[in-house]
Amino acid sequence: MEKKRILIVDDDKSLLKSLTEILQTEGYKIDTAETGKEALEKSSAQYYDLALLDIKLPDMEGTELLRTINGHLPETIKIIITGYPSMENAVKALNLRADAYLMKPVNPEELLKTIEQKLKEQDEADQVTEKKVTKWIETRAEKLWARH
Known about the structure:
The protein is 56% helix and 17% strand.
């Protein structure tokens, strides 16, 4: 199975390093970004299966980054991580189609469980889509053959 690509966006260098080590140990391919601008450059050039987004970045709000990434990578799973939890930013993140919302300090087991669950849901959705397309093609082919 192909390794899943994850983009971690956070301005805390020590958190980036520890999350990178944890996720690489689990077999994920990791890229990191310390600013929203850097994250947008990387996500414009590369597809990511999942993005971990800090809500407070030096150059933009994580919710703004979430909205922009949704625009060009709609299938990417987006998980918001925040040290500033509030009902307002949780609701805003979920309204912008964040797939999960985790609070710092991030529990590594909870993070891995959330990532695995969301990637599994993504794979299942992809399989359903492939099956639907295959079934549609088969049905169209049968109808075409029936006409001749």
